[in-house]
Structures are given as structure tokens and as C-alpha cells.
Design a protein that fits this description.
Blueprint: E1 2-7, H1 11-23, E2 27-30, E3 42-45, E4 48-51, E5 57-59, E6 75-81, E7 84-89, H2 94-102, E8 108-109, E9 114-119, E10 125-129, E11 134-142, H3 146-153, H4 158-163, E12 172-180, E13 198-202, E14 212-220, H5 229-237, E15 248-252, H6 267-277, E16 282-284, H7 294-312
Helix pairs in contact: 1-2, 1-7
Bound molecules: flavin-adenine dinucleotide.
Length: about 325
């Protein structure tokens, strides 16, 4: 029996794996997609370094995890925000998930979805894969988006599953447009962009080629279904005061963008109740639950690893 199974290979699941490596506890990580990293995706196009998710991050205090991952010089401050700073990864946020993935020494199963988790009669847990295979583990760390979690934990606790069954998201697609700097006058306001979620322009030298400008537009969708990327680019272009064609375009779509339920006042109480309903050997962690910012996702994954490790001793 594997001591611990981690479900989901995004930032939280990879952080849990890193913690188990440090503790010397074997695990198996299962990820439904072909690559590790989850929603975090860095794309390089026409000398632009783009991020589909975290691009500019709020940074409060030291991020102690960077140095042991060899990333002490990987971020750069690009401004102040509240009582902290705004930071970017010089070479894209995927530097972090790549560094974590490089630390993995235990088995990883990609292109494999977990369909359910159940308690076994003789102790431990059965983790059922979509192909019917049943893996056994003493403990389980679940880091999948809330949209998928209900059916996964239903046989462990129907009440916990139902508490997370009605999770809502703001479906926002990130459209990236690269322009030559002389394509439009930055003094012309382009931010007054409702009903779009956001529109910002950047010229950070690490990420944007000299004499160019990056425009990032968040376009809200009515449903989680991916619309036509060309139509989204055309829609974004209506906001930008130029008829000059962009030199680069990239549309990043991830169905579970912007969890709204996480911001409800009662959400923390719901999560405490979910934790109480689940056995201590099964922990839920990740950005849809408690970990709102990048460093919280790292610490939430690591905390879940320590909790499950303690519970299976
Ligand atoms: C479009 C977008 C923009 C964002 N922008 C920001 C931002 O600006 N700032 C910020 O702080 N955060 C942002 N986030 C959130 C941030 O990207 C995530 O919180 C971060 O990637 C950490 O995620 P995670 O590991 O908790 O979850 P994820 O990255 O979602 O990882 C979960 C993993 O579980 C896998 N999975 C799902 N179901 C199964 C299954 N049944 N079996 C096996 N594996 C499964 C998924 O494929 C995925 O790889 C954004 C997210 C999105 C989607």
C-alpha cells in the first residue's frame, strides 16, 4: 500500500509532494492532464513571456520557499501594493512549478483521472481511477478544483461532498495582445472596459520585448465552455485605440478561473466543517479552498502533507 496518494499536480499538489520528499515519505501523484503545473502555464511567443494565471503577484514578507528551490533570484519587484510588494517571476511563473516538479522522486501518473475515494474495510483508502484501477493508500491529499471534488469524496462523506457541490466560478478568459510601442498612445485611456473584468498594459523588460507593450484583457464568459479564440481576440481589440494589428496574440482558457464561492463570508466555516467530516488521513488543499495567493498555495499543500503524514503514523 502506498503511504500517501496526492491527487492533482498543480502548485498545491506539487508543494505537497515536495514536503513529503523532505519528510522522506513515499507517495504517488496522480494528474489527469499530460503535464504537471495545473493552471499555471507560461507561454513564450514573439519574445513575450506570458502567464495564463499569476502574472503579477502580491508579495507580503519573504517567500522562504524560493531559496531551497534554487529560485532566490527568480523574482523581481515591480511595485508596491498595500503593505507588500508586487512581484513577477522573471522567466514566468511556471519556473516555480517546474522547480517543484524537478524535486519529485516518487511515481507520477499523468493522463489519469481519479474518480472516487473510499475507506477500505481493513484500514486505509481506495483511490479509484477512471480506468477502473483501484490504488490503496494510508492517506490521501486532494488538490483538485472544487468543481470536481464533490463526486471524488462522496463515498467518504456525502455531507462534505454536498457542502462543496454548488461551487461557482467567474469564467474569465485571459486574452494577451502584443503591440509595437508606437501602435497606440498609452495616454489614451484603455482601462474603462466594462463588462470586461480587467484590462492592463505592461512593458516589463524581463517579459516584454523592447519597444513593445503587452495588453492583458480578462473577458468574462457566460458559461465554462471555451468560445472561439479568434472571436475573443477581436472582442479584446475593440478596447484598444489602434487599428494596427498586434504582433502577438495568446488566449489562455482554464475552466476553473476565479472561484467566487471562496470569497463568501461563510466559506471558512464550510471548509472547517468539511475538514471535520473527512477522516484526518484525507486532507483537501488548494486555491479553490483556502489558499488565495501563490505563497498560500505552497504552504497549504505543505501543511496538508504534514497533516496526512502525522495522521498515518
Ligand atoms: C485563469 C486563471 C487565472 C488565475 N490568476 C491568478 C492570479 O492572478 N493570482 C493568483 O494568486 N492566482 C491566480 N489563479 C489561481 C492559481 O493559478 C492557482 O491557484 C494555482 O495554479 C494553484 O492551483 P492548485 O494546485 O491549487 O490547483 P490547479 O492548478 O487547478 O491544480 C489542480 C490539478 O488537479 C488536476 N485534476 C483535476 N481533477 C482531477 C482528477 N479527477 N484526477 C487527477 N487530477 C485532477 C488538474 O488537472 C490540475 O492540474 C488563477 C487561476 C486561473 C485558472
Amino acid at each position: 500500500m502506498t503511504p500517501i496518494i496526492i491527487i492533482g499536480g498543480g502548485l498545491t499538489g506539487l508543494s505537497a509532494a515536495w514536503e513529503l520528499e523532505t519528510l522522506g515519505i513515499p507517495y504517488t501523484l496522480i494528474e489527469v492532464k499530460p503535464r504537471l503545473g495545473g493552471a499555471i502555464k507560461t507561454e513564450r511567443r514573439e519574445r513575450f513571456t506570458l502567464d495564463g494565471t499569476q502574472f503579477i503577484m502580491e508579495k507580503y514578507g519573504a517567500w522562504d520557499f524560493l531559496e531551497p528551490l534554487g529560485l532566490a533570484d527568480a523574482i523581481r519587484s515591480v511595485g508596491r501594493y498595500r503593505d507588500g510588494r508586487l512581484a513577477i517571476f522573471k522567466d514566468g511563473t511556471e519556473m516555480l512549478t517546474d522547480a517543484l516538479a524537478a524535486r519529485i522522486t516518487h511515481p507520477v501518473m499523468t493522463r489519469m483521472a481519479v474518480s472516487s475515494i473510499g475507506a477500505l474495510d481493513g484500514g486505509g483508502f481506495g483511490v479509484c481511477l477512471e480506468n477502473g484501477l483501484l490504488l490503496q493508500a494510508q492517506g490521501v491529499i486532494v488538490t483538485v478544483p472544487a468543481r470536481h471534488i464533490s463526486h471524488l469524496i462522496y463515498t467518504l462523506s456525502a455531507e462534505a461532498a454536498l457542502l462543496l457541490d454548488d461551487y461557482t466560478y467567474d469564467h474569465v478568459v485571459r486574452v494577451h495582445l502584443g503591440y509595437r510601442a508606437d501602435a497606440f498612445d498609452p495616454a489614451v485611456p484603455v482601462r474603462d472596459a466594462l463588462p470586461f473584468k480587467f484590462l492592463d498594459t505592461y512593458d516589463f523588460p524581463d517579459r516584454v520585448p523592447a519597444d513593445h507593450r503587452l495588453v492583458r484583457v480578462g473577458i468574462r464568459l457566460d458559461s465554462p465552455a471555451m468560445p472561439d479564440p479568434a472571436a475573443l481576440i477581436a472582442e479584446a481589440r475593440t478596447l484598444i485605440p489602434t487599428t494596427v494589428d498586434p504582433v502577438m496574440t495568446w488566449v489562455y482558457y482554464w475552466a476553473e478561473a476565479d472561484p467566487l464561492t471562496r470569497y463568501l463570508p461563510e466559506h471558512a466555516v464550510v471548509m472547517n466543517r468539511v475538514d471535520d467530516l473527512l477522516p484526518p488521513q484525507v486532507r483537501i488543499a488548494g486555491s479553490d479552498y483556502r489558499a488565495k495567493r501563490l505563497e498560500m498555495q505552497v504552504s497549504d499543500g505543505r501543511l496538508a502533507a504534514r497533516q496526512v503524514a502525522a495522521a498515518i503514523r
